[in-house]
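User: My collaborator sent over this chain with a note saying "see what the structure looks like." That's all I know about it. Can you take a look?
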Amino acid sequence: MIGFLLVIVVSLLTCGGQLCQKQAVHCWQLPAEVRLKKTLRWLALAGLLLALGIVVWLKVLQHLPISLAYPLLSLNLVLVALAASWLFDEAITVRHWCGVVSIMLGILLMSVHPS
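Assistant: Without extra context I'll predict from the sequence alone. Here is the result:
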């Protein structure tokens, strides 16, 4: 059970890191006098979240086989898409969702061990 909870934590941390990187790109479009400071702040936060994600991922691997843990990370696809839609007004089309579901199903199929 703890392994599954840790996978959720990893997904949230890495999702946050990706979103911070996107925000850094937005800050880079600001006027020159504030661009660097704000961009670096978001990149530093992205690095911190992604580094914490790696640390928690190592803990996940202590509790779950990688063949199970890695497919669970496909949760990131859903989290990032939803967060990008909410925070950055990015459009999510039916085609996009079909692609996300296809990837998740493919990862799930690869992780199933024949009996």
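A starting point for your reply to your collaborator: The two ends are 23 Å apart (CA to CA).
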